[in-house]
Amino acid sequence: VLVESLLVFAVVLSVHAVVWDRFSWCTVALAVQAFYVQFKWDRLLQLGGAVFQFRGAANSGLLPASMVIPLLGVVMKERCRAAGIVYFERFGIVVASTGMLLALFLSILAVGITKPVPTNTCILTGIAGSVIIYTMKHSLTVSEVIEVLEVLLIFVYLSMILLYLLPRCFTPGEALLVLGGVSFVLNQLIKRSLNVIEGRGDPIDFFLLVAVVGVVLLGLFFTVLFIFMDSGTWISSMFFHMMTAVLGLGVIMPWLYRLIQRNPLFWLLQFLFQTQTRLCLLVYWTFLAASACGVVLYQNAKRSSESKKHQASTITRKYFHFIVVAAYVPGLIYDRQLLYVAAVLCLAVFIFLEYVRYFRIKPFGQTLRHLLSLFLDERDSGPLILSHIYLLLGMSLPVWLFPRPCAPKGTLPGAGALVPYSGVLAVGVGDTIASLFGSTMGEIKWPGTKKTFEGTMTAIFAQIIAVALILIFDSSVNLNSSYAWILASVSLVSLLEAYTTQIDNLLLPLYLHIMLMA
């Protein structure tokens, strides 16, 4: 935990050194108080004193998770300020302020339920909170303050509902990241729906907002519904499919129509088949999806043919990482907008299939339970299987979060040109190579972990080679001699992979994204 915290502090101080304004000072204050509060959360988890049931075999992860959203906002603000885009500079300030307030709320919650009350930690949290609120008071307009408080309110209610319904699925840090992100997306969708201006906003951004909120609302609706009826019967399954169609066609489609001012289905079909390149990419991705399904079916056939219990090895699970890298790299090089939309569709399909598996919806629910149980690991300890969804999110978030309006030529200068590749580098290449080499050839273990020195070093080396290949094949990337920063960023994130107990598929790409954006 100490080494993980040290690495997070290194990232925070690196961003602070580049930005050096009052918001970067606030992130330093937030990091210091989160470091102390993290130990209170860890103690609560060990003693079983936390309000909800969190994922076991991991620390609280409060410090690394608390810094992600504020740092994303700070680096976005700085990039958009340099590009002269005032609207998105203000948006970055709102993102940073929201992240700080959510992290403070989680810290105050831990301090409040710790007995006896930790006086020193309370004082530190009070000082950090005062600095952050004073900065927000002198930086945000009234409408922006209301927006930040709205996100906090949504987060509180969403946390109470989902953490109760889904025990052992998240650590406190993962809950902060996932539920904080969903809360922000929901607030943005409500805000934009109430202030629709024809022709303003990119349809693909609205598509992401509506898809995320739609699948979350769908899950909440069926979770409440199936409290009162058995979800495994044919009647319940027919009702599930019928209500999904009703909610999709009767709520989500009209909502999207209001935002983009055109028929969503016609827009989507026109968008997907607009050029020959897009058609080729879609055919290629269909082949990769079929290959992934083939791996699942083959491994399950192998399990059924063996008398002893068969569980997929680490190397087998990394096949999917290779498939995802093979899917994302051509999309990043040839058509990032298509990749953006395809990733949103994939996320919606993954979450829908998880609902089918979780609720045992006929005819595929039980089959999915059997097929996916082979690939479970210690991080899937709750009722949901989230590893594949986290992998998709880790690869997609750098594409979705890339500030396109602040990059007029479609790319950022220097190391920022690699920002959309953060998921490919951190998870697709770094995490995969570290796992493969560490499990097969690693001998020297990092102190206090199961990860090996050889795995981390080969991960760094592999990411450097991947950057060189990106420079060769993607002509839009121009690093402008920022190689030392890229090496430092890759090294810090690879070391964080060795020491963190959080979901690395989600955390590592976001930290690499922050470092490259800075």
Automatic annotation (TrEMBL):
**UniProt GO MF annotations:** dolichol kinase activity
Q: What is its main location?
A: endoplasmic reticulum
Q: Which GO terms describe its biological process?
A: dolichyl monophosphate biosynthetic process
Asked whether the UniProt record includes RNA-binding among its keywords, one would answer: no
Membrane-spanning intervals of the chain? 56-75, 87-111, 117-136, 148-166, 206-227, 239-256, 276-298, 319-334, 340-360, 381-401, 421-441, 453-473, 485-512
Keywords on this record? Answer: Endoplasmic reticulum, Kinase, Membrane, Signal, Transferase, Transmembrane, Transmembrane helix
Protein's cellular compartments: Endoplasmic reticulum membrane
Q: What class of enzyme is it?
A: transferase
Query: What GO cellular component term, any one, is given?
Result: endoplasmic reticulum membrane
Membrane topology is: Multi-pass membrane protein
Asked if the keyword Transmembrane belongs to this entry, the reply reads yes
Q: Member of which family?
A: Belongs to the polyprenol kinase family.
What is the name attached to this protein's record?
dolichol kinase
